[in-house]
Design goal:
By secondary structure, the protein is mostly helical. Among the domains are: 32 residues; 36 residues. Helices cover 80% and strands 0% of the residues. The longest helix is centred in the last third of the chain and has 48 residues. The protein is rod-shaped and about 165 Å long. It starts with a helix and ends with a helix.
Length: 105
């Protein structure tokens, strides 16, 4: 009977060792499940809107505005030149009249 008792005791020890190994394996599986369940940390993404670059239409509009502005400045320069010439001619005529008046003509 001692032989049967020794066999039973050995079987109980083996079962205890096996159950400990099974418990360790189950704990490892649970740990792996919780590691997968945790959300991965994503890099921070900007939430504001980035302004897009100017399109072709905008650049054409800017170019047209610059051309119209250049033509306007050219006409303004011509008008200033005409006014300057008119003032110069007026000054010469008035000077001539003044000299004629001083000489007594």
């Amino acid at each position: 009977m001692s032989d049967a008792l020794d066999k039973a005791e050995a079987a109980a020890r083996e079962a205890a060792v096996n159950s400990a190994a099974v418990q360790i394996a189950l704990a490892a599986v649970e740990l792996a499940k919780t590691a997968q369940a945790q959300p991965t940390v994503q890099p921070h993404v900007c939430e504001h809107q980035h302004k897009q670059g100017r399109g072709t239409g905008e650049w054409l509009g800017i170019a047209c505005a610059i051309c119209v502005g250049g033509v306007g400045i050219a006409f303004a320069s011509i008008a200033i030149a005409i006014c300057g010439i008119s003032v110069a001619i007026l000054a010469l005529v008035l000077r001539s009249i003044w000299q004629d008046i001083r000489k007594g003509r």
